Protein: WecB/TagA/CpsF family glycosyltransferase
Amino acid sequence: MSDQYGYAHLMGVKFINITEKRFLDDIIYPKLKNQEKCFIVTANPEFVVATRDNPDFKAIVQSSDYVLPDGVGIIHAANFTGQRLVERVTGVDVMYKMLEHANEHGYSVFFLGAKEDANKKAAEEAKRQFPDLIIAGRRNGYFNRLDPEISDYVASTKPDIIFAALGMQRQEEWIYHSMDKFDKGIFIGVGGSLDVLSGNVSRAPKFWIKFQIEWLYRLIKQPSRLKRDLKVLEFMLLHIPGIKRVMKWLGFSKSKPRQR
Ligand code: UDP
Structure:
């Protein structure tokens, strides 16, 4: 990995400090053109806490080429710890930009993940929005992530870009264990982005994003997210100077390893 870019380190996860535009124009599009392989992780606070709780997952994330800050909490935590991340770069935005680029330059994409209905609708919607897009293939995300038949199948379609939307950790594990079967490909874990592309789930309106309270919008829409948002709170508290010691003292800073 080139060292011309700065990084912010949070709980052992190394985030690249770069704008979305430079990330795509200077790093990803040239790699696409040269048919290089690349593994991109998009991580939010909940994701980082999960890596702390699962060393195998952390090792996979650390083996990736780039980790992007997909959450304002990551940007604030970097600031709190005297580091800098210029902007939030979300998986869903990067996916849309890559679809647009693929549409213009003739690259093929594979949609892996989400429920069958959402996966199918996402592929149809992509084709509607980007008529020249080459869809190498699609597959819903409900399979054993180590099933070799799935990775053999995806590899056989020779996609230039693989959007893995299997949910955090599952998608990174799938990429990690499958990449060797491919000769080329930009692999990116995009979480619930196919649900957004399909239209089944809507993103927060611009107001909520602008005021950095997209998380609150999602919590109101989906109260079952409360448990996840408590992880975000834990992450934020752990990065406020001085709080770490208090949290440790209260017994909050370590939780049991979580296996999926
Ligand atoms: N998903 C999937 N396979 C699974 C579990 C989940 O394809 O075995 C999909 C799910 O349908 C959704 C996306 O992964 O489209 C994100 O799921 P979730 O919100 O649970 O993920 P996270 O927010 O943890 O990344």
In short: DSSP finds 13 helices and eight strands in the chain.
